[in-house]
Amino acid sequence: MDYRLLNRLKSPAYKGLTATLTEEQEKKEGERIESVHAKTGGSQTGLGMLSSFLFGLIGALIFFLLYFVYTYFSSYETTDDAFIAGHIIRISPKVAGHVVGYYIDDNMDVKKGQLLIEIDPRDYQSRVALAQANRDLAETEWKRMKEILRSSAVSQLQVDAAWAIKLSTEAYLRLNELQLGYTRIYAPEDGRITMRTVEKGQYVEVGQTLFDIVPPELWVVANYKETQITYMRPGQPVTIRIDAYPHRRYKGHIDSIQRGSGAQFSLLPPENATGNYVKVVQRVPVKILFDEPLNKEEIVGPGFSVVPTVEVRKFRLDVFWSLALLLIGFGAGLLVGLIRKLKKKEQ
């Protein structure tokens, strides 16, 4: 064993040198730790700023999206309590008789002035002939009385009576001619035959409904809740979806709004002054017209279910996209600036 080396290590000088080296190492290690801590802390600070920015941007986007949804849906009012309406013309004869001419069929399209039904005219032709004979006789008698009046063989009163008889026979002739014309029934409007109940050879009475004609002019009656018509006005645009053709959309506009709820004009209006009262939201009929005629190939008529959507406020989609792009651009610019700032700190 080397006692000299052992004594040197135990000497005070060597111990002082060792202590000095240890202090320098600790100092360097502390500086290194502080440097690492500074870098790590800066990075964590940058990540915190980036996270805060992203959370803020996401919150702004969510708020903007909710505002868009609210604005969009508050700009439209829709209902499924709506139906197609139209004119329904009841065709009935003005004279009675047997049907001898039958020129219609179920669901047949007809034109205005087209002959549809012919009633046996022979009885009415006989009445016209009789009325013509009476008219001719009365006219002859009146002329004879006028000639005799010159010789004072008859009085002026008798001549006036003959004139009155002549006028009455002429009126009776015109009446019978009208009834003869009523034996031929023509289409009053363009339309389609529906609900036919007459057959050839059938005896029909005056006023009996033979069939209906539905003209092509149709509109929509939508029963909106009274809380939905606050901002509705005539002329506002409407998008119409017919249940029979769900993939098509039809354009229309509000024509008028009924002044009063539908229940008020029903057969038995509600009497709220008696019994227990329960508040019920009333429905108000709104008349909607189509902007363009419907396609003739599409089978649409009164009673069809529709879903109209009224644009009660003008929704500016271009403004929405402009604001969205502005927000995205502003957020992207802030994000790029923040990233550059973090890179400079790291360097």
From TrEMBL:
Domain CusB-like beta-barrel: 218-257
Span of domain Multidrug resistance protein MdtA-like barrel-sandwich hybrid: 89-214
InterPro entries to which the protein is assigned, alphabetical: Beta-barrel_RND_2, MdtA-like_BSH, MFP, RND_pump_MFP
Subcellular location: Membrane
Membrane topology, as annotated: Single-pass membrane protein
Keyword Mitochondrion set for record: no
GO MF: transmembrane transporter activity
Keyword Magnesium: no
Keywords: Membrane, Transmembrane, Transmembrane helix
GO cellular component: membrane
NCBIfam families on file: RND_mfp
Transmembrane segments: 53-73, 319-339
Highest taxon in the source lineage: Bacteria
Organism field: Methylacidiphilum infernorum (isolate V4) (Methylokorus infernorum (strain V4))
Protein family (similarity comment): Belongs to the membrane fusion protein (MFP) (TC 8.A.1) family.
Protein's recorded name: Multidrug resistance efflux pump
Primary location: membrane
SUPFAM superfamilies noted in UniProt: HlyD-like secretion proteins
